[in-house]
Design goal:
single chain; 187 residues; mainly alpha; 3 helices
Length: 187
């Protein structure tokens, strides 16, 4: 019991210190969250201020337009103005209709089909010519390679024949020399 009473102030001090640290850590975390919230609120307030400035400019323009429209005396309805606009619109629509008709006639005409077929035939002929020329180039390249390989093969065979003849000749010369040496020794 005495031991527990002696240790209890120390244990209480440790617990109090731990609780203080936990409280301060929680307080620090909450302060950081509060700072982040304040920063978000400031950003939102700044955006709202910008939006209000834009709205103020828009309302100022609208107000100016409204004042201009009311001070400018409006003139009475005149059917002649609308008649002129309708006439101009009719002329424009007629020109547009004529243009559509001519393009439709051009696309539907046999001349257009004949021209398209001509272009298609010319393109096909050019493709055939290009294919033939490329085949000729490839065949010529392979022929040259075959000729070069053949020449190298013939040269190799001629070298072998020459080496064989030289060796044979050297054997004959060596045999004649050894026969001559034997004859001289036997004398």
């Amino acid at each position: 019991m005495f031991y527990m009473l002696k240790r209890e102030p120390t244990l209480l001090r440790w617990q109090a210190d731990t609780l203080k640290e936990d409280i301060f850590n929680d307080l620090d975390d909450r302060m950081k969250q509060a700072d982040a919230t304040v920063a978000n609120v400031r950003a939102t307030v700044s955006e709202v201020n910008e939006m209000l400035k834009t709205a103020d400019t828009l309302f100022t323009r609208f107000d100016a337009w409204d004042r201009w429209a009311t001070t400018r005396g409006s003139h009475p309805f005149d059917i002649r103005e609308y008649t002129e606009v309708v006439k101009e619109l009719a002329v424009t629509a007629g020109k547009m209709n004529d243009m559509l008709k001519s393009s439709n006639e051009l696309l539907g005409s046999s001349e257009w089909d004949r021209r398209i077929q001509q272009v298609s035939q010319l393109a096909d002929e050019r493709m055939k010519v290009a294919a033939e020329q490329s085949q000729r180039v490839v065949h010529d390249a392979f022929r040259r390679v075959y000729v070069a390989i053949s020449i190298l093969f013939v040269m190799f065979i001629l070298c072998l024949v020459a080496v064989f003849l030289v060796i044979r000749r050297l054997r004959i010369v060596a045999r004649n020399a050894s026969d001559a040496d034997r004859r001289e020794m036997s004398k």
